[in-house]
Amino acid sequence: MIQRIVTELGPWAWWVLGIVLLILEVLLPGVFLVWIGIAAIVTGVLSLLLWQEAYWVWQAQWVVFAVLSLASALIGRRLVYSHGRGSDQPHLNQRGQSLIGRTAVLEQPIAEGRGRIRLDDTMWSVQGPDLPVGARVRVTSSNGRDLTVEEA
């Protein structure tokens, strides 16, 4: 059946396959089928140019399609992931990191390197130099649970 379709459509079979893959990419987004669809269309272009050649048998076409699919997928992956995906809120789910640079007043003194501050509605454990209650501190880093502070 497939051989009959390829024989009847000739080089246009690759174009049909490419368009079907591109339509599937729209229906099932994932940015993968687009690269295989592009490879099929390029194979179709080559088939239009080489259809009458003796060496352009269906096995050669499939090998070219496979190589082009792999190459376009690798190039496409590089294109998609090479752009720095900056965010307007880079610390959205990293609350401790978003507090770096903020200042607060000590709620509990820093004694032996540990104390507590209140930022917004949360009490945070802090590490830093020994300071009395009421001292103003600036957050310099976060390890996820504790904040490191210095005198502001």
TrEMBL record:
The keyword Transmembrane helix appears for this protein: yes
Compartments in which it is found: Membrane
InterPro entries, A to Z: Membrane_assoc_protease (IPR052165), NA-bd_OB-fold (IPR012340), NfeD-like_C (IPR002810)
Organism superkingdom: Bacteria
Presence of the UniProt keyword Transmembrane helix in the record: yes
Occurrences of domain NfeD-like C-terminal (ranges): 97-150
UniProt topology in membrane: Multi-pass membrane protein
Pfam families in alphabetical order: NfeD
Membrane-spanning residues: 12-42, 54-75
Entry's Gene Ontology cellular component terms: plasma membrane
UniProt keyword annotations, A-Z: Membrane, Transmembrane, Transmembrane helix
Cited PANTHER family: INNER MEMBRANE PROTEIN YBBJ
Protein name listed in UniProt: NfeD-like C-terminal domain-containing protein
